[in-house]
Design goal:
It is a single chain. The two termini are 28 Å apart. Helices cover 58% and strands 4% of the residues. The chain folds into two domains: 73 residues, no CATH class; 62 residues, no CATH class.
Amino acid sequence: MKLYIALVPEMGRDASRRALDNMKEPAIAIKNVLQGRPKGAVIAMGRMVVNRTVGVGGLLDVAKKSGREPQTGDFAQTLYAWGFRQGPYLVLPLLGPSNPRRRAAAWRRAAAEPELLRHPRGINRNRIAGKLRRRRPAASPGTSVATAA
């Protein structure tokens, strides 16, 4: 990640993020339809068409500049709209606090959204490893991690 940040200028990173966000628009449109928000679905699909054509494949967010704001919506909201209850509060090892509705939405997202294709199971191993490293006590100078813990 540090190499990517060092080699790709911020403008390039922003453009790639916009292109990935543009790839999510059809999924957002479907979620909006399932939530009973057809206007949001039309806006999401309009954003996709405009940004993929005029916005050079989604690298530019022309739709936002013309007043079409990005739509939101996740699968947990869709489940809520269909009457699924939140369920009990859960704290899962490595995955953290959640509830069954949010966990189901996270697995669906991991299976379907483009930026997670690098990790087929949707688990960001670097993020988990980073959380584990942050929880480990820091060693004082001159001691090893094994003796500091």
